[in-house]
Amino acid sequence: MMQFTFDAPTIIRTKRDGGVLSDAAIDWVIDGYTHGRVADEQMSALLMAIFLRGMTKPEIVRWTTAMVNSGERMDFTDLRRDGKPLALVDKHSTGGVGDKITIPLVPIVMACGGAVPQAAGRGLGHTGGTLDKLESIPGFSAELSKARIRQQLCDLGAAIFAAGELAPADRKIYALRDVTGTTESLPLIASSVMSKKIAEGTKALVLDCKVGSGAFLDTEAESRELARTMVELGAAEGLVTRALLTDMETPLGRTVGNAVEVAESLEVLAGGGPADVVELTLALAAEMLDAAGIDGTDPAQTLKDGTAMDRFRKLVATQGGDLEQPLPIGPHSETVTAPRSGTMESIDAMAVGLAVWRLGAGRSVPGGRVQSGAGLRIHRRPGEPVAAGEPLFTLYTETPEQFQAALAELDGGFSIGDEPPPQRPLIIDRITSGD
Ligand code: URA
Prior knowledge:
By secondary structure, the protein is α+β, with helices and mostly antiparallel strands. The chain is 42% helix and 17% strand. Strand 1 and strand 2 (84-85) form a beta hairpin.
């Protein structure tokens, strides 16, 4: 029985003044918020204090554990396919722009023999969410019961689901962070990602930790620290956990938004798609298969021979989605054209993420509806030649009054130069426990 010896104002003041929260205070506040005894405005104030003051490692560990303990923890170790335990493995990104990688990645890993229990998230701040993207497929549902998840893992090798009763504290805090300017915090990102992933019952985990203007954290050093923190949190829970540090200075691929990113993912599954999306998807697939102890399979082959596409179609159909119906696209469009000729030099991921959020692809109030058809198409990526007057970006929305704000975000968010820009490596580093 939990003793109610704490109160929210004292906990908020402790963190506001740079103090360290005790384990018991953390357990109390997370439990209280999950069950409605701590109000949204109190948790908002505490999140802002954490954002400004940070947390010690022991505080992060306890905050994560308290979030895991706020709900149930799934266990799939009893499941068998062909008499063998499932090779349970998952991936999570710290949030990017145009980051549709989970969509082609999950079916590749399925086709290679992995089993992916993917508790996916919604959009956060200027970054998109896998659930919002997949829900743009007519009929697709991520509200799966535990029995359905277990069944799908055995029969198909994957389930993509809303975290639901897993880490419900994260569900509430995630939604609050999204609308209170408290997303960009190392302890809050690490605990949010890892509480879901620990609770979802995966045995191996690969993290895609973003670096660059479109990442939540400002510097490579901070992203590296985030990756290390998450890898340690996973290892301490017995998960084989690794992270790739990857570039998020430029959006991934040529689309940013909801349905437009699903369409691009289908291109990748059909064996095409933008080179950067394919490269990162295959690198993460290789890491996942290695972490799960699966060898002798070639992820790239599953794109060539159509087995990954086949798995994706089955997964979507099982979750109610109808890929025969057209994907939605915002009925209003606006095109940005090149002011001069030259070479596309840079496209700022943050500017594009904010523009797409303004178009209606993300939320500004908790639980708000996102527009499935809101998005942006990139016609010229960095390094590609540009002629004056050519289209650079096309923006789509249901609400044309949002164009002005979206265009203002893009203003200054790209540059055209005379020379091709230096090539940036997409995969910057790999972090494993002990690094
Ligand atoms: N993904 C999450 O699940 N949480 C975050 O805070 C950021 C990315």
